[in-house]
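Methods: example folding runs. The two proteins below were folded one after another, and each record is reproduced exactly as written to the output file, sequence line first and C-alpha cell line second.
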Amino acid sequence: MSGVEHPLVRLWARLARGEAVVAGVLSGTSADGIDVALLRFGVAGRPAPLAFGTRPFPEPLRVALRSALDGATLDARGMALLTRDLGRAFGATARTLADEHRLALDLVGSHGQTVYHHDGLEPSGGATLQLGDGDFVAAAAGALTVSDFRPADLALGGEGAPLSAALDPELFPDLARPALILNLGGIANVTYLAAEGAPLAFDTGPANALLDGLARLTLGQPFDRDGAAAARGRVAPALLTELLAHPFLDRAPPKSTGRDTFGQPYVAGVHARAEALGLPSDDLLATATELVAASVAQACERFLPARPRALVLCGGGARNRALAAALARRTGLPTSASDAHGLAAEAREATVFAHLAVRAVLHRPSTEPGLTGARHGGVLGKLSCPPIRETTPPQGPFP
C-alpha cells in the first residue's frame, strides 16, 4: 500500500532501538477505575517505567458497569454498547496519560473489564469474558493494541488466570527466593517464585470484591479506606469458620475464580448472614478481612512446595493496613508492599499487560502449566490496528 507503513513494522523498529512506549490498561475485578502504566521497551534490557495513573470512569459508564457487575441482566444491545464504550474509555485514558507526559504511544495492552470468569466447575469447560473491544481501544488510543488475553490460555487447556504470574520473575528480579507475590485485587492470587524452576500461581479466593462490596452495603462508601473500620471491629469466629468452609478454598491448583463465585450474590449472602447474627458493620468488615488473610495463609500451607522467605503485596488491597497486618500475622512472613521492591503496588497489573502486549507482538509465549495449567506455552492476545492516517488512497494491487 503506497505511503502507508504498517504499525507493526514501526513498532519493531522502535523496539529494536529501545524507544517503544507501551501502555498497559485495565480495570480490575473491583472496577474502581482505569489503571494505566506507561513503560519504555526495547528488545534487550529491563523496561523503564515512565508514568502511572488511575482515572475514574465517565459517570454514565461507571453506573452502567457497576450495574452489570452487580448482577443486572444485559441483552445483546446492552452488552454491545458496554464493550464499545469501555473500549473507547480504555483507549482514551491511555492516550490522555501519554499526552500529559508528551509521549508518542506505540502499543497498548488492554486487559479489559472481566464480567465473567469460570470457577473451574463449568461442565463444558472454562470460559471467560472481558469487555472493552480492542478495535475501539486502538481507535481511541491511536496505537496498535493487543487485547483479550485470557481466551488463548483457555484454548490450550489453562485456567485463563492468573496471567500476571508469567511476568513476576521479570518484575521482581532481585527478590530473594523462594518468595510469594500476592495480588490483592477483586480476587486474591499468588505467585510462588521458587529458588529454582518455574513459578507456581493460582487464585486463593476473594479480596476486594468482598471487602469493597461490604463497604458499599454497610458504610455507604466505595471501600474501607486504610481498613479503618475493619481495624475497629472484632472478628466473629463462628462466621469466619463458616466462610472458610467455601469449597473453592479447598481445591488444589491450578485454579482461578471470579465474580460469578465471589461477586455480588456472595457479598449479599455474607452480609445477610452477618445481619442474622447481629454483627455491627465494623465486626463484619473485620471478619471479612480476616477471611481474606486466612484463605491466603491456608493456601500457602496446603499448596506451596516450600515456605517463602517473604510476602510481597500488590494491588489496591496492599494499602489496606488492617489486611496487611492480618496477612503478616496469619502467614508469619516478613511482609512488604511491592513499592519497596521498585514497583508501585497499584501499578503491577497494568504493568503486566504492557509486558504481555510486547510479548504478543514479538510472538513470545506467556503461559506454562505451572501458572495456569495450560498444556504448553501460548502467545496471548488479539491484535487491533489503529486507523490509517493518509492523505491519498492506496494505489495498486495488495499488498
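Second run, written to the same file directly after the first:
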Amino acid sequence: MKVIHSVALFRSTVLGPLISRDQLPRGDLKSTIKMLASHSYNIPGSRNNHLSEKTIEAWYYAWRRGGIEALTPKPRSDRGQSKISPEHQEAILASKRENPRRSIDRVIRLMERRGQVAKDVLKRASVHRLLQAHGLSRPTGGPSEVEEHRAYLAECAGDIWYGDVMHGPKVPVNGKLRKVYLVSLMDDASRLITHSAFCLSETALDIEGVLKQAVLKRGLPKKLVIDNGPAYRAKTLQAVCLRLGIHLIYCRPYAPQSKGKLERWHRTFRDHFLSELDHSRLGDLSDLNARLWAWVETIYHRSPHSGQGLEGDTPLQRYQRDLPKIRSLGVLAGQIDELFYHRVVRTVRKDGTVSYLGARFEVPYELSGKRVVLVVDPHRQQVLGVEDEQGQSLGAATALDALANVDRKRRKPPLEPVSSVQPDDAENEVELAYRQYHHNREDR
C-alpha cells in the first residue's frame, strides 16, 4: 500500500469538513473556509499555526481535481540544479568556507564589493539552496556541524526548575478585556508545577512573583533555567536568585528544546485546561487564577505521568519521594519579603525627597544631595527605606504629603552667637571705610 505523504495527510485533515460532504449548499463553501481559517494548526515543517482562506480554497479545488495525490507537494523541476554560474558558485562556496559564520546576505555583499558579481544579480534563495546542497547552510559551528542535543533528566526533585511564559486568553480587567500571560515554573525530575499564575505582562517582575510563591511552597531549587530575553536578564531577578542561592541559567536564543518538558506541558495545558475553560464564568483575573490553581493541584498533579523517570507515578508522588533531599527555606522563610525587595540608586533632592515610578517619598533630610539606595517593594510599588552602598540602613521613607508639610515645623540649625564685645583694635570693614573717608575730608 502506498504511503500517504505527511503533508497531504495534514491538508486532507484540514479539508475534512469540506471533502466529507457529497454536496455543499450554496454559500456554505465560503463560510466553511472562513471557519477553517480561524483555527490554529500544527503545520508540518512550519512555525506558523494559521492558514489563510486563499490557501485552504486552493487545497480544496486541487483535491477536487486530483484527490489526495493533488495535495502531495511536488518536487521542484530544477531540484539539485543551480541557476548561478559555475564560477560564481565556486566563489560563494569559498567565501562561506573562509568564514562559516558569514550569513547569506554578507556573502552576497562581500562578492559585490569584491567585484566578483554585479549588484542584485545573486538572489538570496538561490545562494541558500547552493549552500544547503553543499552542507554549508548552518550559521554556527563548523561548515556542516550538527549541534548535539541529548535527552536528560535531573536526578532529584529540586535539582532543576524551568521557567517560561505562554500567551493566554483575554479576561475582564477594570471593565476592559486584556490579554494575560501564563508564567510557570516546573520541576524537571517530577514535572511538578511548583507554581503558575496568569499575569498582565511577562516581565522579570512577574517571574519574581511566581518564584516567590514557588519557593514558599516547594523549597529552593539548585538551578533555574529561563529564557534569554532582555526582560529575564534584569539585575533584580539575578539578585534575588543570588540571595536565595539559586544558579540562574539562560537558554540559548532560539533553542526551545532547552525547556522541552515545559513546552510539552504548555500543549497539555492548552488541550486540557484552556479548551475546557468557560469564559462566561470569569469575572476578573483572580477568577481565572483560582481555576488554574484548582486544576493544577487536583487534576494535573494527581494524574499518572508517562514521562521518563516517572514510570506511571503522578508528579506529586514523584516529587514527594525526594522531599528529604529538597532544600528548604529554613531561616530565610522569615526574611522572604526582604529577599525579593529591589534596590534602586537615587539622588536625594534638596527638599529631602526621592522619586520612584512617578511618586515621591520623603527620606531623612540630612541625606539631601547624596546618592542613596532605595529599598523598594516592587509589587506594592512602595519605597520602604534607604540604605548606603554597604547595605546599612539610613532611615525610613514615607510617601510625600505636600499639604501636611504646609503646617509642619521645620528644623533649623542653631545660630552661632555674635559677640557684642570686640577688641579695641578690631575694626570691621564699615568702620574702616568710615574712618578713611572722613579722615581724608578733614585733611582737605
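Comment on the second run: The radius of gyration is 35 Å.
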